[in-house]
Hints:
The protein has 735 residues and is of the alpha/beta class. 32% of the residues lie in helices and 18% in strands. Among the domains are: 198 residues, 3-Layer(aba) Sandwich (Rossmann fold), CATH 3.40.50.1700; 111 residues, Immunoglobulin-like.
Amino acid sequence: MRKKVLVYGLCLLGSICTLSAKDKKDVALYKDPKAPIEKRVNDLLSRMTLEEKVMQLNQYTLGRNNNVNNVGEEVKKVPAEIGSLIYFETNPALRNSMQKKAMEESRLGIPIIFGYDAIHGFRTVYPISLAQACSWNPDLVEQACAVSAQEARMSGVDWTFSPMIDVARDPRWGRVAEGYGEDPYTNGVFGAASVKGYQGDDLSAENRMAACLKHYVGYGASEAGRDYVYTEISKQTLWDTYLLPYEMGVKAGAATLMSSFNDISGVPGSANSYIMTEILKKRWGHDGFIVSDWGAIEQLKNQGLAATKKEAAWHAFTAGLEMDMMSHAYDRHLQELVEEGRVSVAQVDEAVRRVLLLKFRLGLFERPYTPATSEKERFFRPQSMDIAARLAAESMVLLKNENKTLPLTDKKKIAVIGPMAKNGWDLLGSWCGHGKDTDVAMLYNGLATEFAGKAELRYAAGCATKGDNKEGFAEALEAARWSDVVVLCLGEMMTWSGENASRSSIALPQIQEELAAELKKAGKPIVLVLVNGRPLELNRLEPISDAILEIWQPGVNGALPMAGILSGRINPSGKLAMTFPYSTGQIPIYYNRRKSGRGHQGFYKDITSDPLYPFGHGLSYTEFKYGTVTPSVTKVKRGDRLSVEVTVTNVGARDGAETVHWFISDPYCSITRPVKELKHFEKQLIKAGETKTFRFDIDLERDFGFVNEDGKRFLEAGEYHILVQGQTVKIELID
């Protein structure tokens, strides 16, 4: 009997082992979290039908104008096999419902990737990107992007369409607000910092999301600053100006890119195989994917490249654009193009591979759902608001401070006037995520808190942001006459910058300028506080103002930092990342132009040819004295090491932060170069009486070298100049 039991037990054990092995064998490799991602992608691809593959290359929307009572209906409208959705909600519930459909109702259970435009914050809205660049603090920007990632991922968003790194030199273009100014290197540094903030070291972490470099490429060169229009960009300019930030962003690990709307010298960005395949994929080795901008494939018809949507789909896909955002070109025509032999299955497989790779890297196959949390757990965490305040403070630029009008240390009566003083919405700026005006600390309230017990405040709106109603002028003038100083808060509405927000003039509306002129009659000092999303024409406001503080559109927590600068509690440290023209008629005007054939001629006859405030301008309440710029050597050969140092001493009475900009100039080159090129910057806090050393370690190929029209870098023997704060050091490169 014992023998029979033993035999029976062995048989049972063998059956269990056989069943376990069979079960293990039946589990698809792509579902095994321990298997290498590449093998999982290959396995999943091998199981997919052509129709399933095509659906992975499309992006629809979920949540816009969604009625909470019709959540089920909303989900029913979207196919379970869809590759991606733009998610417009702040609560993960709807996302999870849709993801459940994808996981359980699609044949292979492929999770959806949810994207959203979190440009300068998700709900905790930070200063606009142009302002962030003026902080010259990429580490702080990285922290802000990490907060955006945490809020977005906890709300159901896996992927942000940010950062925007379009070099922009025409402030009439509304989208200058979204990028980091006029300099290629600056855009690259802040773009890379943003990528690191969004993605961290592990894309699958529950507080990180995929980044998307946009708009690839040259969108900022739109003619006359008008959106969506033609851009004339030579290959030389493409390489030496517009591509550098993208190369830096790709090297930083950006998961995706977004194609641009613009027609680039006859070939639209969304159908441009040279930039999307030759450069991005082949030369730079990017293994992520490209998503179109909204409807960009459809717009190839408007641009005159394709007569039909089917032809547009062929042009975009064969050029290297993997995902169609809301053109419905791929879902309707890509399978047909394959069946006709115009697109190969191998091309489709390669595109789908790139999309699946990101989904695996994000951990969506293991954790397709977003845990439910409260808004308090997700948004406005104390450390998030602290980062918002610090970034706002460091982004603000003191443009003018005549007769040391600021700080306001002895003023007892302050008139706070202007349409921006008690205005929440316009402080958020364009592309403000899910920000609300009720989230915003208003400028007047910031001043009231800052000067509580120190000064009395009196408020008058004076006028609206636009129009011709002067009924509020009298009250404003009365407040100005009562006061010791006028804090005049003027600026742009949030809708005046951003996408499709081009302006023929970058001056503020006449009603605001007239209000300033009226207040000047009071004879009191005027501190002009500017809220805007682009450089402004200030040639009429500048003479009226005793001090000018540019605070940009500072987001939810900029009021107290602004007030802190006015009181002197905070020493301003921002410097311009984009030139302020004297007049709109000077545009385009930027620091790194090429030399004129006649340096003594070619100037405007009716106005100055100089900007009102140049790139890098920004005042402090203390004074910094630069020592002599000292190179380690003055003659170098290829491959040699070269470093340059300069000491900076705070000779004033206040602690302050100073940014040192290191420029390179190549006076003579076989391809003419800009008068100077920013190659490095560093910001340090220097206490009163303290001296700090700033150092630039020069890579000769990277920093002295240049690029030709085919993207090949070269380094020529000869004389190079290093420029810092009015000093020039000559370095000779010998063969």
